[in-house]
DUF2269 family protein (Paenibacillus xerothermodurans), 143 residues
Amino acid sequence: MYPSLVFIHVVSALVSIGPFIVLIPLLSKLRTAEGSLLHSYLDTFQFVVRLCKHSGHVLVLSGLLLLWLGGWPWNTPWIAATFFVLIGSVFFMARAFSPTIHHLRQVDAPDTALINKLARALYIYLFILFLMLWLMIMKPALW
């Protein structure tokens, strides 16, 4: 059962991070899109955010099961650090994408300031995701 959970955990990590990479080229298209094309790009952006959010639920659940079945203590440095980063990422994601996408939907032409805000949120969130990925893979002895 443990190897199957590891597989589920790794696949959910890929699905949680991978689609955000696709959004990077979409940002440049958002800057020039208007009308229905702008809204279709925003639909794509919102779909990716939802997909990654729900994949993150599987990721966390499988991670908790792996901790429990693997006998890892909660105070292991890389586990504790990952949970701190995870808690911060939940609050960040809740405020980073949906409100900005909602504001962009209210205009027919791209708003440079809002797209810049969306781009900044995307890059910050990718950094957070890669930080958690690094903690999971490298398992550093932080203290």
In short: The longest helix spans residues 35-70. The CA atoms of residues 86 and 132 lie 7 Å apart. Helices lie at 2-32, 35-70, 77-96, 98-105, 112-138. The mean pLDDT is 91.
